[in-house]
Amino acid sequence: MSQSFEALRSQYEDFCLIGWGAFTNVWRARHRLTGVPVAVKVLEKAEENFLSIKGEVDILKMTMHPNIVTMFQVVETESTIFLVMELCENQLLEHVLSMGCLQEDEARKIFRQVLLAVSYCHKRGIAHRDLKPDNVMLDGRGMVKVIDFGLAVRFVPGQLFSKTCGAYAYMSPEVVCEQEYDASKNDVWSLGVLLYYMVTGTLPFKYEAHWQLKRKIIRGDYRVPQHLSEDLRNLIGLLLTANPELRPIAMGIWDHPWLQPGEGGRGHSDPLPRQVDTGILSAMKLMSFDVDNTLESVRQRKFDQLMATYCLFQYQARSRMGAKGQNSPVLPGRTPFPTLTYPDAFPPTPKGKNNVAALRTISSCAKLQERRGHGQQAEPKAGRSASLPSIHLSPQMQGPKRLCPVTAPGTPVAHGKGSRPGLRKSTVSPAVAEEKPSPWTWGSHGQGSRLELWDQMATPESSCTGEEPAPSQGLHRRRWRALRGRIPRCLRRFCLCLWPFRSSRVVPMKAGDSCED
After folding, report:
1. What values do phi and psi take at 419, rounded to 5?
2. Which is deepest, 206, 237, 290, 298, by most CB within 10 Å?
3. What is the C-alpha separation between 81 and 442, in angstroms, rounded?
């Protein structure tokens, strides 16, 4: 990459070459502040193309239409001119090649927008002179953008030109014959070739040699498929009129019947609004931009850094609101800009909640087990805050320590047939049984609640003796008994790497059995 790109590195990043020509390279980049992808057209200053470069820059500064590529900024150095423009990556040529040909309804929608752009240019005395599918771009919303004004020229009504330019298959007969021609009538001929290509997938003038192509263009020798509608065949014939005097102008085609059905007529794509968006100016003021200088740059269309930032914010807002919102100004306060005032542009980093959710589930299971120990039926929970499975609590494992059974308040523990030897009689204090555990909250208590939870989960040092435990110790012991079987079973459920539910048995194999069985 040339060192001249240093003039852009403070504002743009992630440069990637996407196109090139004899005197031009096109790079994809990203605006650092807004994150909007842009196209940077690099024009090398040379004596042979200096006038065309200057003409392209002046023409793009004059245009402001939703169907014409938007230029945001012009950066000029000693040897290079950088044009920062709207990025358009989907060519009409590729779309037609992928589809084979377009249906009339889709072709009508695209052709209307191309005709709108050409009519807008002709009304302001601008002729494109290089209309072809390569220079018509489509976006994901169905919007058409006409690009590449490198061969465009300004004209006045009745002015004739003699320079031969453009793609040969799209040139009008007068240009092919190297005669003086009306640039606007040449665009109308190119529109006819473009429309023919969209609905058929082929060019109207097929040839095997260059001289054959020239002869067919001069004679207007082409065939229109009969499966096309009569109105469409009539419009193609009208546009491909060999005599430029009989060929219509772009603004005179709108009354043709084929362009009338459906939406997207002459009044459906008005020029972009010129009023200044106060919401964008307010956002830029919060970023320490000078509002007065920005307002002056936008109104005078200086195409400097301030205007580029404003236009990229506006472009970002229109893209998020959709294609239908392009013709109306952005309402202040509704567009998320990348500032701290608009948090939607900076979504907060998701915090890790797995540990909190898991502990909350464990604590709820402990309280559920405690209620069952008191002979009460647990109330169903309204919702679960963790993704852990709902597992019924049942003793599966026995640790090295002996556990004291939990009985009803005031009931002695008797050693029956199924009781363990060595357990002494003890009673549970009614005060301990009636004591309700304090709920473990996670909102206002914060970290203190987590520490309190682990304190409550601490293993009691006392064993099963005949002494009556204190209320807090008994509460801790009951909770620990509930959690003792819960934790390994949850881990076994997720990891499948702990103790098995029951021991495996080794059975000798019978004769004829294989290991695969």
Report:
1. -85, 160
2. 298
3. 60
Whether residue 162 is found in the same domain as residue 298: no
**Using one digit for the tens of pLDDT, what is the confidence trace for 356-409?**
333 343 344 444 444 444 444 444 444 433 333 333 333 444 444 444 444 444
Q: Give me the catalytic one of 14, 130, 139, 290.
A: 130
Structure tokens at 49: 């193309």
Tell me if 192 is assigned to some domain: yes
Sequence-ordered list of residues with C-beta below 8 angstroms from that of 452, at least 6 positions apart, any chain: 440, 445
Residue type, 174: E
Range of 222's domain?
90-272
130 is catalytic: yes
pTM of the model: 0.62
Please, are residues 133 and 100 in contact by the beta-carbon 8 Å criterion?
Answer: no
Q: What is the mean pLDDT of residues 78-99?
A: 92
Task: Note whether 56 and 25 are same-domain residues.
Answer: yes
Return the beta strands (E) in 139-260 as ranges. Answer: 144-146, 153-154
Q: What is the pLDDT of residues 128-159, one digit of tens each?
A: 999 999 999 998 777 999 999 999 999 999 99
* 65 three-class SS: coil
Does any domain span residue 23?
yes
With CA atoms as reference, report the closest residue to 69 among 49, 86, 48.
86
How many folded domains does the chain comprise? Answer: 4
Burial of residue 236 (CB within 10 Å: 0-12, 13-18, 19+) is buried
Beta strands at 90-91 and 136-138: parallel, antiparallel or unpaired: antiparallel
432-462: pLDDT as tens digits? 444 444 444 343 344 444 444 444 444 444 4
* Nearest C-alpha neighbor of 319 from the set 137, 84, 66, 499: 66
pLDDT digits (tens, 9 = 90+) for 309-340: 999 999 988 877 664 444 444 333 334 444 43
Nearest partner of 101 among 262, 189, 190, 225, judged by Cα: 225
Examine the domain organization and report whether 75 and 148 are in the same domain.
no
Q: What is the pLDDT of residues 287-305, one digit of tens each?
A: 999 999 999 999 999 999 9
Examine the pLDDT at 56 and tell me if it is beyond 70: yes
In terms of domains, do 121 and 191 share one?
A: yes
